[in-house]
Each structure stands twice: as structure tokens, then as C-alpha cells.
Amino acid sequence: MDARKLSTVSSDASLEQVVEIIRRDGGVIISDFVSPTTLKSLTEELDTYLKATPCGVDPYFAGTQTRRVARIIGRSDTAVGVALNPLFIGAARQILQTPTHVWVGSDRIEMAPDIQLSITQAIQIGPGQGLQPLHRDDATSLWRHPQYGREARLQMMLAISDFTDENGATRVIPGSHLWDDERMPTQEETVAAQMKAGSALLWMGSVYHGGGANTSDVPRTGLTMAYDLAFLRLEENHFLSIPIERVRQLPAEMQRLLGWSASSTLLGWVEIDGQMRDPQELLGMAEFAEPGKGF
Q1: Listed residue (192, 229, 234) closest to 214, CA to CA
Q2: In sequence order, what are the residues at sequence separation of 6 or more whose Cβ sits closer than 8 angstroms to the Cβ of residue 119?
Q3: Residues near 259 by Cβ (< 8 Å), separated by ≥ 6?
Q4: Which regions of 136-256 does DSSP assign to beta strands (E)?
Q5: What is the pLDDT along the chain (295 residues), one digit of tens a residue?
Q6: Helix, strand, coil: what percent of the chain each, to 5?
Q7: Residues 62-83 as b or e (16 or more Cβ within 10 Å = b)
Q8: DSSP letter at 188?
């Protein structure tokens, strides 16, 4: 089949238009998503961390010629404004916060789920990096299609440098958000999300996509963020209510059950030296000895 094209709209497009295209195609490119001033600040802030971060060690998914830096909201003031961009968070709210009804005693109440900022990561694909396997990001929650009747994630990739077919632009299969879970994605069905620096790709968690191969001689840098449904979380916030000293005293099994672990689907990881690692490693690090100190 011939892959459909990704539509591109300007940053002054209405929220309704952006949401309509995303629901139709699975994703959309927004040109000039951030201002030149914002792009310059982000580039400078992220470069500092990317230069100090080694490439990954996972040849299959994360990439051995790819640098990844997380904790972006804690590292960049400029990124806060990106996360709160009205087209990004507005689309996330419209697409994810589908209301439903629940019974509370004899009262039938309409409720809409909350959303949370799930991931923030600068990704720099270096020359020589091959194709990333095609995947759906909502697989982290083992989301099924189309049974649940709602989306679990809205993701954004902001081009910090130009995204081209040659330097590893994100590859997307438009329309794949409508597929069931039996259909296998192929690279032949993908299109490259080519866009100028400062533009952004928004897509739903049910869309098949993957990082492109960088056959050029320059790196490709992007900043990705995602909003997820917030009900897929712990009811009690153990991370704030239990001091780190107490957590360290507990058996490893109890630590994991309290959330100090990464799941088999990669939920709950923490960045350590540029790698996505299990929080169990963090508990053993001396530099993470004080509550709230970080690492």
C-alpha cells in the first residue's frame, strides 16, 4: 500500500483543526511550533547535556549511535513553556480526556481522566545509526486496539535541528492508529516526518513509528515529550510519603512493589549517566543519599 502523507499546518492553526487531523491521520506536523528565540535557548541548554552524555549501549531499540538525555523539566526552564504549548497540551486534553460515567451509590457521575507529563527526553541520532524498530508508544501500558475506545498517549517531537530523510527524521505510518493488534507494521509503509528546526510532530500513542536511519554526516536532534492518561499510576504517592532512608531499609521486593522499579515494558525507568536504568540502581548510589537531592 502507498503510505499516506503527514499533513503540515502552521502554528496559528486552530486547536480544533490540529485535533481533527490527528484523529484522522494519527499525527500532524506543526511548522514554527516554537519561536526562534525559544529554539536558540533550547539548543544551548540541551547541547550542554548532550555533549556530556555517552551514546547508548542497546543496539536494538535505544541505539548505539544515539544520545538520550531525560529529566528535561528539571534541566531547562525553556522546556516548561514547550510542555505547556496550547496546541500540544490542548490537543492532549481533547484527545485523552474522554469522559465516562461511573456509579457512586445511586448517583451516576460523569468523570474525565487526568493527564500527566509522562516522558521528556532529548534524542540525538548520530551518523551511522540505523533504523529503530517500529513500535507503538502505548505498548508501555500494554494498551490494546481497538478494545479500550480511548487513546492512552499524545506525543510530541520538536525538531531542534532540521529533520530530513537522510539524517534520521522520525518515521511514521499515518493511519496506523486505526489498526488492530494483529497487523504488523513495515518500513515500506512509513513516511519521514521531514520538518525544519522549530517545527514539531504530534502523534497518538497508537501510531506506529520509529527513529529513522542517519545516513548523513551530521547528528539529528529532537526533543520529545508525551502526555499520558494519569489513572495508570499508584493511588498513594509513596515517592513523597516514604523517606528515601526508609526505602533503603526495605527488602528489594518491597522497594519494587512501592514503585522503585522499571517494569518489563520500560515504565518507571530513571536516567543514570545517559542510560535508561532501573531505579534499584539509584537506591544504591551514594550521591542519592539525601531526600530530594537528586543525582
Answers
A1: 192
A2: 70, 224, 225, 226
A3: 234, 238, 239, 268, 279
A4: 153-159, 171-172, 191-192, 200-204, 209-210, 220-229
A5: 345 789 999 999 999 999 999 999 999 999 999 999 999 999 999 999 999 999 999 888 999 999 999 989 989 999 999 999 999 999 999 999 999 999 999 999 998 888 989 999 999 999 999 999 999 999 988 999 987 789 999 999 999 999 999 999 999 999 999 999 999 999 999 999 999 999 999 999 999 999 999 999 999 999 999 999 988 677 678 888 888 888 888 888 888 888 888 877 777 888 887 888 888 888 877 655 554 444 4
A6: 30, 25, 45
A7: bbebbbbbbebeebbebbeebb
A8: G
Tell me, rounded to whole angstroms, the distance of Cα 44 from its chain centroid: 21
Helical ranges in 52-163 per DSSP H: 72-75, 77-83, 86-96
The C-alpha cell 542497546 sits at 58
- The pTM of the full predicted model, rounded to 2 decimals, is 0.86
- 193 in Cβ contact with 169 (< 8 Å): yes
Q: Which residues pair with 122 in a beta bridge?
A: 69, 223
Scanning the structure block, which residue is given the C-alpha cell 548505539? 64
DSSP string, 62-87: T-TTEEEE--HHHH-HHHHHHHT-HH
